[in-house]
Inverse folding.
């Protein structure tokens, strides 16, 4: 009987077993754990909550269930003491192969059943931003690939040890390692890949590629281990080593196992996703490179060609310098560690260059020797897969036909040690992208289309001034509006259009900018007449620069917009998130102290209330904001742990932090706004408070500590902490 | 009958299924304790009867499922085939059935005790708190009526069609999705979170309105009645 026939019979036998169907049913149910007790992601996007977490939980629980099924099935013959008979009928090696194949087919069936079972609920819950491809990829990679890993691991453990209990312990130990100490090691957490967030509005190929790569590395390794254990299957009454010697007589078998293990090792070492930047973030040696004497910058250009299918970038950069030193000079650039630099020429002649193995802040050091000529035109080509620095927050270098973000040295080599010329660092960037993508330079520059190609791509061009630069591009919707005396370009993902329209995003932007500019002053990062508000892919926060500000998509998810603590209705939560442009980004706050209610949220919620009052009237604002804060604060002071803090102190640290964090959230969102409201009464009303806040917003910043503190707020109000007590 | 009772108990308790169920229950209980009970309920302490009631309410569906799973031991197809033999023995079928039901009750009680023991350990470890006497009444009033009812109703349903037991297992989950009146709030724990807030006092002692007492009493009585009714089929 050949392996295929035997596999079909094994599969039939497996599918007749009640245990198999129990495992299939429990695996299909296991995504529910991801919605409740087994949360892996750190983001609140809809796809993180409703797709990534359930799929990861299904991978962990389903994988462990299939490991149990594998062990149970492997031990079946020996438990029934019929091994002698079955071994006489079929070679144990053939039987093991057939069993493995049957289990893998069953795992595939489990994946299909689970994916189909959860599809309707997920599509309904995620709503307008649901994406079938993301769903299938997430379940396939995060759940589907976990099952064969567990089957191979459990099968190998059994074939090595021939002990059910010992094999179970081995599987449990490796699973526990993955779930605990390896959790932050993206290449080691084989059971629960490091997926911290999935984007709702843009693609997720980068983070899913990384998870798939890790899983395939482990698949190679475990397939190698399994093949080795397969050779150790006991034959002719021999022990593991005797059986190995016997089975290895066909040389291709051990060679195959060895090749798989070597491929795994190579795959582990040659991963293309994460750089090897110095983990010590206090070291900034690249910024300490001295400027060259006698060399000044004239201009630079870059032609960038992202491959949106492969996720890679190729480009050509050209730099013009004046070299008055009369000697050769070594120009330093920062390049993304994933790029290979080639074809480096100065005035058309090849020049020597080196790329350092040392990396820092997601850059490697490229040093090029330029000749002693008075005018030098340096050109170079670069190509590769842009690497990231933080393995537990992958996805920042997403590059697809839906979205890309190329920052500084990922866009073009970043010049480090040449002084600017009379015009600073003028730059002209050209980038060729699919026609559905809109190019948005992060800053005051405007990109324009300069060529349309037959292959469905367009070349965009923009001018900038600087050694680096950030470029966003994606399938964006743009809305233009006038507010607060400036022209606002509001960009958001096309997939989010329905949500944005439902919450009246454009009106909200206008209302917030008008209100905040009038009451607190214009944003410091607005470029005079215009401001770009760009919704970014989920990135763990936003940032702002001259003429542009980033809005993290996590603030605009359907779930977040339904968060009553931030605003009475979805549109008001949207307002809340926009107000963070003033309180949080325009005026920064230090990391919130859990024992204090002071944070960016207090002023943001207060401002949201004021805007709601202006838009919908006092009664509405009092009912939906002030009354809610009062109720929450009353609740807070009645809380058992607030009344009896000694019990909170007695708790272990993890539990204490969980409770105090929950309480501090309420303090930031409800207690602080109430205190500010009380301060408003004490200082003489809304207008007086607006003046105070305007003064704080436009104050001169201390560059060493630019954060707005509670004490500064109290001093500006002429009040003390006791004055704002709510007792 | 004592021998049969101990034999049935051994069958129910000394197997992988019971151990697996126990492990799942303890894991779930631990999660409920840390996530729902530890923060305290309705401004009361985590070790108040109200917080503890929420703990029991959340565990009830799992205990219900456990109780019904025990009954599947006695209603399976294999068991029905063996019933021909047991029916031929001189043992009184009614007493035999009650003995088996008592064994299922013991299994369920052990599951409950395990959950209670876990809470006791957590209370002692985290707060050094041992005032268990205040929790006896909420425990009895929360767990006893639904679980006796589960055994009684499950027993009868299993006699009609064994697979009905599996359908019946979903009952508390369905209930938890419904907006129950306050009198039935003990079934999903919502009573313990809501009722103390209506008492207008901080840390109120445990009490229940008459409607809740009545609902729990009726449930218990119905459960006992179903257990006491003569078997539809002999030997099961």
């Amino acid at each position: 009987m050949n392996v295929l026939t035997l596999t079909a019979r094994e599969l039939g036998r497996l599918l007749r077993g009640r245990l198999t169907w129990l495992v299939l049913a429990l695996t299909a149910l296991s995504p529910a754990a991801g919605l409740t007790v087994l949360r892996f992601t750190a983001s609140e996007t809809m796809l993180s909550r409703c797709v990534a977490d359930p799929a990861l939980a299904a991978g962990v629980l389903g994988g462990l269930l299939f490991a149990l099924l594998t062990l149970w099935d492997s031990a079946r013959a020996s438990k029934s003491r019929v091994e002698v008979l079955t071994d006489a009928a079929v070679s144990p090696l053939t039987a093991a192969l057939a069993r493995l194949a049957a289990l893998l087919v069953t795992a595939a069936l489990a994946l299909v059943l689970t994916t189909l079972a959860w599809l309707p609920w997920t599509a309904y819950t995620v709503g307008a931003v649901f994406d079938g491809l993301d769903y299938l990829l997430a379940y396939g990679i995060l759940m589907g690939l976990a099952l064969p890993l567990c089957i191979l691991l459990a099968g190998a453990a059994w074939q090595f040890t021939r002990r059910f209990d010992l094999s179970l312990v081995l599987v449990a130990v490796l699973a526990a390692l993955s779930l605990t100490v390896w959790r932050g090691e993206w290449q080691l957490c084989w059971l629960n890949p490091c997926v911290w967030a999935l984007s709702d509005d843009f693609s997720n190929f980068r983070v899913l590629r990384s998870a798939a790569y890790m899983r395939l590395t482990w698949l190679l390794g475990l397939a190698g281990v399994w093949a080795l254990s397969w050779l150790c299957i006991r034959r002719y009454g021999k022990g593991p080593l005797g059986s190995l010697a016997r089975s290895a007589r066909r040389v291709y078998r051990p060679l195959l196992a060895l090749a798989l293990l070597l491929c795994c090792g190579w795959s582990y070492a040659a991963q293309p996703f994460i750089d090897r930047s110095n983990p010590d973030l206090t070291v900034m040696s690249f910024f300490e490179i001295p400027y060259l004497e006698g060399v000044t910058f004239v201009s630079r250009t870059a032609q960038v060609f992202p491959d949106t299918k492969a996720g890679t970038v190729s480009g050509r950069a050209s730099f013009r310098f004046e070299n008055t030193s009369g000697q050769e000079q070594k120009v330093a650039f920062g390049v993304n560690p994933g790029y290979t630099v080639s074809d480096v020429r100065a005035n058309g002649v090849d020049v020597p260059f080196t790329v350092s193995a040392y990396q820092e802040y997601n850059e490697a050091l490229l040093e090029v020797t330029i000749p002693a000529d008075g005018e030098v035109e340096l050109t170079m080509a670069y190509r590769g897969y842009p690497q990231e620095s933080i393995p537990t927050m992958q996805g920042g270098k997403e590059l697809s036909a839906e979205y890309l973000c190329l920052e500084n040295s990922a866009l073009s080599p970043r010049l480090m040690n040449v002084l600017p010329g009379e015009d600073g660092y003028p730059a002209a960037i050209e980038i060729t992208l699919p026609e559905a993508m809109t190019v948005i330079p992060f800053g005051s520059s405007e990109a324009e289309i300069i060529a349309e190609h037959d292959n469905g791509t367009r070349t965009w061009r923009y001018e900038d001034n600087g050694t680096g630069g950030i470029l966003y591009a994606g399938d964006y919707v743009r809305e233009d509006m006038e507010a607060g005396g400036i022209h606002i370009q509001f960009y958001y993902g096309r997939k989010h259009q329905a949500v944005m329209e439902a919450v009246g995003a454009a009106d909200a932007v206008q209302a917030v900018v008008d209100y905040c500019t009038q009451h607190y002053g214009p944003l410091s990062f607005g470029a005079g007449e215009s401001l770009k508000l760009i919704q970014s892919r989920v990135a763990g926060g936003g940032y702002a620069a001259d003429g542009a500000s980033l809005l993290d998509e996590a603030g605009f998810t359907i779930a977040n917009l339904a968060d009553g603590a931030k605003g009475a209705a979805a549109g008001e939560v949207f307002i809340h998130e926009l107000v963070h442009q003033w309180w949080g980004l325009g005026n920064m706050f230090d990391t919130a102290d859990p024992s204090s209610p002071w944070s960016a949220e207090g002023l943001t919620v207060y401002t949201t209330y004021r805007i709601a009052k202006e838009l919908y009237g006092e009664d509405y604002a009092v009912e939906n904001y002030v009354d809610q804060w009062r109720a929450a604060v009353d609740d807070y002071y009645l809380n058992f742990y607030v009344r009896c803090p000694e019990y909170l102190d007695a708790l272990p640290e993890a539990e204490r932090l969980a409770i105090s964090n929950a309480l501090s959230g309420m303090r930031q969102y409800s207690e602080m706004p109430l205190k500010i409201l009380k301060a408003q009464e004490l200082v003489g009303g809304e207008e007086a408070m607006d003046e105070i806040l305007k003064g704080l917003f436009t104050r001169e910043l201390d560059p060493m500590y630019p954060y707005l503190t509670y004490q500064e707020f109290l001093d500006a109000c002429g009040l003390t902490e006791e004055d704002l007590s709510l007792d | 009958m004592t021998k049969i009772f101990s034999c049935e108990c051994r069958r129910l308790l000394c197997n992988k299924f019971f151990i697996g169920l126990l492990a799942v229950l303890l894991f779930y209980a631990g999660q409920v304790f840390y996530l729902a009970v530890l923060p305290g309920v309705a401004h009361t302490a985590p070790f108040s009867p109200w917080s503890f009631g929420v703990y029991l309410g959340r565990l009830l569906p799992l205990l219900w499922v456990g109780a019904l799973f025990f009954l599947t031991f006695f209603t399976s197809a294999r068991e029905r085939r063996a019933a021909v033999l047991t029916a031929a023995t001189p043992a009184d079928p009614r007493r035999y059935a009650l003995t088996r039901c008592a064994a299922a009750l013991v299994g369920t009680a052990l599951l409950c005790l395990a959950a209670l023991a876990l809470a006791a350990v957590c209370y002692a470890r985290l707060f050094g708190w041992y005032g268990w006497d205040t929790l006896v009444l909420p425990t009895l009033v929360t767990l006893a009526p639904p679980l006796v009812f589960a055994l009684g109703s499950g027993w009868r349903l299993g006699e009609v069609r064994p697979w009905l037991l599996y359908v019946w297992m979903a009952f508390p989950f369905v209930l938890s999705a419904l907006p129950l009146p306050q009198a039935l709030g003990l079934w999903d724990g919502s009573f313990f979170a809501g009722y103390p807030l209506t008492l207008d006092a901080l840390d109120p002692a445990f009490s229940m309105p008459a409607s809740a007492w009545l609902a729990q009493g009726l449930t218990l009585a119905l459960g006992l009645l179903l257990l006491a009714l003569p078997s539809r089929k002999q030997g099961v």
Notes: Residues 3-269 of chain A form one domain. Chain A has 24 helices and 20 strands. Chain A touches chain B through 16 residues (CB under 8 Å). The CA atoms of residues 192 and 444 of chain A lie 42 Å apart.
